[in-house]
Write the structure tokens for this entry.
Amino acid sequence: MKLRKLASLVLYCAALGVSPLASAEPPAAGEPAEAAPRSGELNYRSTGQRQPQLTQLPDGGQQILLSCLLSRPGQIQRYAVNCPGTKRIDVKVADCCIPGDHWQVKVKSWDFKPNTAVATSPGGDGDYSAPASVFTYSSSRDMNALIECSYLHGVNIFPAESFLLVESSGGACSVTDVGITEEIDRSP
């Protein structure tokens, strides 16, 4: 009886043009297999390397490199950003240290037309996401925003770190570390 059901399944799937059985094939010769993290490998940098780094751009804008270090899933790292004379900021996120982690950055701007932008990292070590861009519609052209960084999924080795690259087109920005909270992130 089981053989008859299996034969019927194979014929039915063949008629539909699909394979009735799934098979896992090893990587072809010359193709790298996905590397598992080595035992004892750290998923974060040393404390001295996590200090904010500021770069002035030739067009008068600024780049600020921030760190997002979380101890476990379900945490959110927040930064408050103030950029006088800026109408827009872009924030990108990239995985640090062990490839395979996926991170999310959410940027919120509040004025009379509040807006939110979300981006996720592609998972490669140092590969930045597309920018999460927020705008201010205030006549003062002062950008006040909140940046939130959270861990989505990946190799699950904690503590884990990601990079946040903040880019502004206007004057000097100031960044305040608002801290880490324990909560489930709800996008946007």
